[in-house]
Specification:
The protein is mainly beta and about 400 residues long. The chain folds into two domains: about 30-120 and about 340-405, no CATH class; about 120-285, YVTN repeat-like/Quinoprotein amine dehydrogenase (Methylamine Dehydrogenase, Chain H, 7 Propeller). It contains two helices and 29 strands. A hairpin with a 4-residue loop joins strand 21 and strand 22 (about 300-310). The longest helix has 24 residues, at about 1-25. The termini are far apart. This is DNA-binding beta-propeller fold protein YncE.
């Protein structure tokens, strides 16, 4: 009896030790180094969204832990959080063009994708960028518009129920001086009541090219001015992104030109309540750079700009605009595009660069480069093309926006 009695507490102790060991191996931790990526399949399977670990110091670096399939040919394109950071969306070049994504955490805190709800975009096709405002609206650029040769539109949505409120259209055929055509980039300065969109390229990438940005009244939706963002009317520079600096930053508009390979700037005019003409502030060709794409700003007046060819991220100081001071150049891969910013588990400040632009030859590395900002050293590279047969299209944080200011 004595022997059997002693076995019981011994068994309890063993079970407790095992339980504690299990807890130590699987603690609930904040997954600040796990990210969402939009992706396209290279094997004819469904495109979708995935969760990937991007901390080079993590044992599962580069591993996809979860996927949500959206369908063959959907081509999800840009990931965005709403103003409250409690809803996630992706735009798409195909499929339903816009989806609200439901995500949650599993029992150990790992991000998990649950579902995608298509949103009715009306006649508007080829979804590109979003911008959420504080008054419960969001705006979306549709590079294809209703499908015409020189088309393009902006959808105005109710951010609470995702209902389309209005479609803003202004065909170049009706007014060649004030128009919306092939809109891609969008930025808003709510304090000034202004919105600006770029004119980039026809969705088939061959039938037409833009070289302008258009300023729009945020409340009346009336066009205020269309600006040339090119060396000449014949220079089809394809402005791709625009950023209206706001808040504490110098009050300028910045634009990147995809085919021009440059950065342009326009000062805000308090008298006209518009922006003055755009001028070129950085000529990519002088640095052997082309295909200028995304702009991100941190809280210390640093501007990060991606150049898809040959795959660089340039870091500028914007504290003395219109003077743009180049601080450093980070090397990514061909197709350098979207970025996220985070700290590794050991505290290194890094930027992860998604290297792919629409699977365009020579701009489609299909990798994600993780670069230490202070040293410029590449700490790790994930090759999604070879590892998973997919190409990353965009990237975003799993705990909210992973940047200070994007568009």
């Amino acid at each position: 009896m004595k022997l059997k009695f002693n076995k019981v507490p011994l068994l309890i102790i063993i079970l407790m030790m095992f339980s504690n060991c299990q807890h130590e191996n699987h603690p609930e931790i904040p997954h600040d180094t796990a990210f969402f990526i939009d992706y396209r399949s290279l094997t004819g399977q469904s495109d979708g969204i995935a969760v990937i670990e991007l901390d080079p110091e993590a044992p599962d670096f580069g591993n996809i832990s979860h996927k949500l399939e959206l369908g063959v040919g959907v081509l999800p394109h840009h990931l965005y959080y709403n103003q409250s950071k409690n809803k996630l969306y992706t735009t798409a070049l195909g499929g339903s063009y816009l989806y609200e994504i439901k995500a949650e955490k599993d029992n150990i805190g790992q991000p998990k994708l649950v579902s995608a709800t298509p949103i009715d975009t009306g006649e508007n096709t080829v979804g590109e960028n979003l911008f959420f405002t504080n008054d419960g609206r969001f705006f979306m650029t549709f590079m294809g518009g209703a499908g015409g040769l020189k088309d393009g539109s902006i959808g105005v949505f109710n951010a609470n129920n995702n209902q389309l409120i209005k479609t803003i259209k202004a065909p170049i055929q009706q007014n060649p001086n004030k128009f919306i055509m092939y809109p891609h980039g969008i930025s808003v300065n709510e304090e000034k009541g202004l919105m600006m969109v770029t004119s980039t390229i026809h969705p088939d990438l061959t039938s037409g090219f833009g070289n302008t940005c258009t300023l729009i009244d945020l409340n009346t939706y009336e066009l205020k001015e269309t600006y040339q963002v090119a060396d000449s009317p014949a220079d089809l520079s394809s402005p791709v992104e625009v950023l209206l600096l706001r808040g504490k930053f110098p009050q300028y508009a910045l634009a990147t030109t995809m085919l021009g390979g440059d950065i342009w700037i326009a000062p805000y005019n308090t008298a006209t309540k518009k922006y003055d003409a755009f001028t070129k502030i950085f000529d990519g060709s002088t640095q052997g750079l082309g295909w200028t794409l995304e702009m991100y700003i941190d809280d210390n007046n640093r501007l990060y700009v991606s150049f898809a060819d040959p795959g660089k991220v340039l870091v500028f100081d914007i504290s003395n605009l219109p003077n743009l001071k180049l601080l450093k150049t980070l090397t990514a891969d061909k197709g350098a595009h979207h970025m996220v910013f985070f700290k590794t588990k050991k505290g290194k400040e890094v930027v992860a660069v998604q290297n792919n632009l629409l699977d365009i030859p020579n701009l489609n590395s299909g990798t994600i480069s993780v670069i230490e900002i202070a040293t410029g050293k590449t700490l790790g590279t994930v090759n999604l093309r070879s590892k998973y047969g997919i190409l990353p299209e965009s990237i975003e944080g799993t705990n909210g926006p992973s940047n200070y200011m994007h568009h």
